[in-house]
Structures are given as C-alpha cells and as structure tokens.
## 1
Amino acid sequence: MYQLGILKGDDIGLEVVPAAVQVLQAALQGFPDVQVKWADLPVGYPSYLQNGETLPQHTMEALKSMDGWILGPIGHAAYPKNDPKAINPHPIIRRVFDLHSNIRPSRSYPSVTSIHKNVDLILVRENNEGFQPDRNLFAGSGEFMPNPDLAMSVRVISRRNSEAVAETAFRLAQKRKKKVSVLHKNTVFKLGCGLFVESCRNIGEKFPEVEYEEIHVDTAAALLVMNPQKFDVLVTTNMFGDILSDLTSGLVGGLGMAPGLCIGPKYSMAQATHGSAPDIAGKQLANPYAMIMSGKMLIEWLGIKYNDSSLMMAAQRIDEAVSTVIELGTVTPDMGGKAMTREMTEAICASLEKN
Ligand SMILES: NC(=O)C1=CN([C@@H]2O[C@H](COP(=O)(O)OP(=O)(O)OC[C@H]3O[C@@H](n4cnc5c(N)ncnc54)[C@H](O)[C@@H]3O)[C@@H](O)[C@H]2O)C=CC1
Ligand SMILES: CC(C)CC(=O)C(=O)O
C-alpha cells in the first residue's frame, strides 16, 4: 500500500493538481495489485483562510508517513506580508524532507509549437542551498541588511548536497544519452562554484561510461538557446537552475510543458516548474501537462525505488496517453489548441482507459 499526499497549492494548482490525480488514478486502475491511499492535505492560501496558516503542522506531520506527494504551485507573492503564519511553504517542505535534487525535464513534441524540435534534456537543480540557504544556518533567510543602504544575500554550497545532486544527474544520464554537463561560474565564485565543480568531478569518477563536461553557466545559456539538442543531463546550483529551467521550458513550448520531481534519500515530491499563474487561474486555461507529467515522474520514481514493475508500467502508460492526446491536438491554448484543462485531462484518461 502506497501513501500519497495531495497538496493543491494556489491559483491554477486547484485545477492542475486534481487533473494530475485523476490521470494517475486512471492509469493505476489497470494495475489492481497497486494499492494507493490518497490524503488531501491543506497548504497555501486556501489553508491560510481555513486554518490561519499556509503550512499547518498537521500537514507536515502527515507528510512524514507518506511515500511521496504532489505539491501544486504556490502563489506566495500575493500572501499577506509580515504575517509569520503566511510563509512560503515549499522551500520549507523541500528542506525538512531533504529533497536535495530537483529533476526538470524538457522534451519537445512534433505537433507542439516550439522554438526547437528534437529536444530531450533534463536539468537537475540543487534544491535547498545556493541563494536560498537553510534558515537554521542563518537567522532569517540568508539575507540581511547591515545598514539601510546595503543588502547582502548569502550563497551556501555544501559538499554533501553538491555530491548528492551530481549523483542524481549521473544516475539519470546512465540510463539516457550518457552525458552530464556541469554548469558553473567558478572563475568568479572560486569557492562556492569551485566546491560544486570539485564535487561533480569526484562523483563523475564513479561513472566512467558517462561523458563529462564543465561549461560556464553564461555560455551554457547561449548554447541552450542555439543548440539544445547537444545536451543530455545538466546539473547546477539552485539559482542558476531556477533560471535555466524556465529557459529550457521556453525551448519546448513554455512553462506549461515543464514538469519536475524533487527527490531526496527518503521522500519524493512531484512539483511542476511553473508558478501559480494567477493571470489564468479559475478559467480552465492552465495546461495540465506539467503537473500530470510530474505525477508520472513520481510514480515512476517510486516504481524504481521499490522495484515495482506495475508502477513503472503505469508511468509508461501515462507517457503514451499524453503523447497520443498531444498528437490528436486536444490541448490547451498555450500548446496551440482550444481544449480546456478539464477536456485535455479527460482525453488523457479516455486514452488510458481505451488501451
Ligand atoms: N514552484 C512554485 O510554486 C512557484 C511559484 N511561483 C509563484 O507563482 C506566482 C506567479 O508567478 P509568475 O512569475 O507569474 O510565474 P508563473 O509560472 O505562475 O506564470 C508565468 C506565465 O506562465 C503562464 N503559465 C504558468 N503555468 C502555466 C500553465 N500550466 N499553463 C499555461 N500557462 C502557464 C502564466 O499564465 C504566466 O503568463 C507568484 O506568487 C510566484 O512567486 C513562481 C515560480 C515557482
Ligand atoms: C520561491 C522559490 C522556492 C521558487 C522556486 O525556486 C521554484 O520552484 O522554482
């Protein structure tokens, strides 16, 4: 029996997270040996209105007994300022559950309008350090103002997390095109990026069959725009990865096409790259692809972890159903179609039920 959490989040989270759950449930119906207990857990602004806090303690407690969960986007920019009960939940969830690696694939589809075709890459982003360091390391957020005219942001890089995220990247590359590109700026951040690169080199020695390269992050940004097909797995620090994973989504059709999975030694969390998109929330315009494929990555990951071939096959079936529906053109406007969130989701479920 797997225990999976559902944390809808804010704005379009209320549309795309239920879409992902609906698709996972439809896919798992074909595998009666897989038992899942789902738990709806409050988080974000709806939770603030209901419980007075955006991340209730009982949600954090419940997550401890989960195998994994889906976290929707969080619209924290709109939360009340200066209320400690209105915190941004996701950096805390990522840290408390040691979700050190954020795996963000970008894949193009022939029938989706995009700047590039034949793109199939994964960006792995360190998830808990960089310019978003652990609040326990610094009083506050890692940012402070020694005087009203000077602000300082501290960037933290540890050998432990750098090696962990490198290991994630090499393991992924092993099963793909066998190439890892390390993106850094060690000419400037000699210590921080220096330690990150050294950690990646050390881990790389364990994977002699995987081609290894180091690229300055600014050069990599240009290469990604000009020739993304040259990449397989990219690995980098938190803030570089935050920016570049939005860029890689832009290569294949935009933020609606950007799924993600945060993993650590014990837990895993499906979390799309995009934010809560308040501009389109409540209108059934949100592309559910990113969240559905994040959910697919979650069950695939659990399948590998627990050597459960049914979970892996269910993930494979979601992949195929999504490709079929994209090919048929039942897609949202950002993908060039006319379908609403609900219609695209139902078309994916119908394809799963048919095959
Ligand atoms: N992981 C998370 O929960 C993240 C949360 N945010 C938060 O989200 C809120 C909005 O931030 P923005 O900068 O506007 O970024 P955003 O990613 O929410 O939206 C940027 C643009 O992409 C579009 N978009 C995003 N997801 C889409 C989807 N699934 N289908 C179709 N179009 C989609 C939006 O309509 C908007 O035009 C803010 O409160 C921000 O702090 C931002 C990034 C990540
Ligand atoms: C506020 C940040 C934690 C948002 C972010 O890094 C992301 O999910 O892309």
Note: The mean pLDDT is 95.
## 2
Amino acid sequence: MENQNKMHSEAVLTNSDLSEQIKAVTKDSHVRAENTELMLSYQRGQINLPQYKLLLCSLYEIYQALEEELDRNSEHPCVTPIYFPSELARLESLKRDLEFFYGKDWKEMLVVPAATKRYAHRLRQIGKDNPEYLVAHAYTRYLGDLSGGQVLGRITQKSLGLKSGEEGLAFFSFPGVSSPNRFKQLYRGRMNGIELTEEERTGVLGEAVLAFEFNIEVFDGLQKMLSETENDNNTLQRHATHSKLDNGVREVAKSLQIPASLNNAFPLFRMILGLCVALATVGMGIYVF
Ligand code: HEM
C-alpha cells in the first residue's frame, strides 16, 4: 500500500497532465467505490428492481445539481473546454427512466438518502464559489459512466430481464458518443488544456477525491435504506403470520364453543391452543405432500 501511495504521488509530481494526476490521486478511491456493497452486488449480477429504482432517484438529484451548475458556468474558462451537454447530459435520460419505473407522478416518489442531499449541496456550492472544481465532479461521473458504467448497464439489463434498447436503461446509453474510448481521449485532452494556478490544481485534485467520497457515501446510504426496507418487510411478514395464527386460534376456539372471554383472558390457554393449531397445520401439510 505504501509503495502504491508512493507511485501515486510520483505520478502526480512527474506528470503535469491534469487527467493523469486526477486518475492517480483517485485510484484508491476508485477501488473503494468498486467495493461498496451496492457495486459488489452489481458486479455479482445481483442488482434487483428496488435497488435500481432507488439508485435512479439519487442519480437524478446528483445530475440535476451537476448539470444545472455546468450550464450556469458554461462560459467559465475552466468549464467551457469540458462542457459537452449534447454528448454527456444525463438528466433527460434519467427523467425517462424514472417515468418508466415510477409512472407519471415519479417526482413525488423520489426517495434519497441524506448523503445524496449532501452531494447535491456540495455541487451547488462549488458552482457558486469555485466553478473550477466542477471539472473534478464532471470527470468522476461522466468518465465513470463511459467506463465501468457501460458494463453496469449490461448487467442491469440482464439482471432486470430487460431487452436491449428497451425503456428503463436510457441512463446508460450515450447516443451522441459513438466511441466511448475515443471520447474519453478527447475529454482528457480538454481537461489537460485547462489553465489552473498551482493552488487551483491542488483544489481540483482534492475535490476529485471528495467526489468519489460523496459517491461512496451515497452507495452506502442507499444500501442502508434498502436493508432497512427489507427488515421492515420481514417484520410485516412476521406480523401477518402471527395474525393468521391468531385468526386460526379464534376459529378453533369458536368451533369448540370455548367462550371468547376464556380465550382472551388466559394467555397460556391461547398459547397452547395456538401451538395445537400450528401443529395441525404442519400435520396437514405433511399429509397433503
Ligand atoms: C462496479 C463498479 C465499477 C467498475 C467495475 C468500474 C470499472 C472501471 C473501468 C474498467 C474503468 C476503465 C479504467 C481505465 O480505462 O483505465 C473505469 C474508469 C473510471 N471509473 Fe470506474 N468502475 C466502477 C465504479 C465506478 C464508480 C462508482 C465511479 C465514480 C463514481 C467510477 C469512476 C470512474 C472514472 C472517473 C474512470 C475514468 C478513469 C480515467 O480514465 O481517468 N467508477 N472504471
């Protein structure tokens, strides 16, 4: 690890291209992002519809902030060279995907973790105070979407059983980019042409690490929301099973003409009766199969 870090700092010191420096300083962060639980489920091909829908909500908030700030600062000398709205903008695609999965009222159904709000807030803040930092965020999201993002698109399509070119996958498709690799080369060249003071360059590199950090926090926040929903569903299911058993007990008590007051008043009596109902149900199941 120490060696790796040394190599990164050497790359930063010896190569003055912003695109190389940014890649070097975010290398470890990229590995960490790839290893978040959400990205690991992706790589195992285990992405499911609730996960994908929730991810789309967060991506919408993030790209809305990013693209509004890029649009507002499109004349800024550090933004103009990397401003490619017709090739890269994702907001309209995200709107289409969200409408496909959530229906016409999708805007009212957006749910995002606090980390997404923090990320969007940071984007708006730098759009106002340090527009030169936008290059770090645009690089992190768009070059990521054009790299690993393309693989993730195919995994989403397969995992959700969607057909290629079908609705719901617009986010991954870049009709204005015929060759992602060539486009990435062009983008890197544009990044390298941006004039930055040493202080600004250091700021941009720090912001890129922060951009990855924001993404990692969003993925962790999403995973937490998903596991909480799963736990809630399990609890609901357990309640449903209990109340089924309760209904069963009530039915048996009724058919044996046991007074409701006795059944309600003695928990032990209810428990024994409940156990009998459960055993009878299992017995019936064994008999049927
Ligand atoms: C399952 C997760 C991921 C996989 C499998 C993956 C894979 C890749 C691959 C194969 C490349 C190309 C590397 C190269 O050309 O040298 C790449 C580049 C990149 N990825 Fe990822 N990635 C993942 C997640 C992410 C995430 C979450 C982000 C940021 C939010 C991200 C941002 C980037 C960026 C900015 C690049 C361009 C690097 C450069 O050429 O400077 N990736 N990724």
Note: Residues 23, 30, 33-34, 39, 42-43, 139-140, 143-144, 147-148, 151, 212, 215 surround protoporphyrin IX containing FE (CB under 6 Å).
